[in-house]
Specification:
- By secondary structure, this protein is α+β, with helices and mostly antiparallel strands.
- A four-stranded antiparallel sheet has the order 2-3-4-5, with no helix packed on it.
- The termini are far apart.
Amino acid sequence: LFYRLTGRTASQNALAEAMEVLEHEATEGEPRELSLRIARPNDHEIYVDLGDQTERVVHITPEGWQILDGDADVPVLFRRSALTLPLPTPEPDGDLDQLWTFINAPRDHDRQVIRGWLVGAVVLVGLPCPVLAVLGEQGTAKSSALKRAFQLFDPTKAEVRMPPKDASKL
C-alpha cells in the first residue's frame, strides 16, 4: 500500500516498526485455528479453500454447496504454503465415474474403497480418517493412482515419497 501510494519502498526501520505493530496485534487477539485446505467449524458446514488467487471458498452444508468470493465473511482461516495449488472450480452435476479414466481401479469393490476414502478425507476433517493403502506389483500405477486421487481435494507441488525402509528413521 505504501508503495502504491508513494511510488517508493518503505525503509528498513519503517518495516521493522510495522512488524512490531503486527506482532503486538497478534498477541492481543484470541488465537485462531488455521486450516490447510478443508475446515469444518461445526457439524453442519465444511469450507474448502480453492487455493486460487481470488481466495474463493466452497461452502458445503447438508442443503448443498456454493462458491463464496474471496471477500466473503468466512468463519475459518486458511493457511497456504508455496506447495498449495488451486483446485478446479466445482461444477453442478459432476460425475465421479470420470475418475476411473485416470485411476486404474477396474473392480467395483476397489472403487467403493476409493470413494469411501475420498468422502472420509473431506468430511472427517480434524477426526481420524481412513488411510488409503494401494498394493500391487511394481509398474501397476500405484503412485500415479494415489497422486491423482489426492489431487482431487488437495493438489500440491510436493512429490510422492516412499516410506523409509527403516522405521526407526522416522
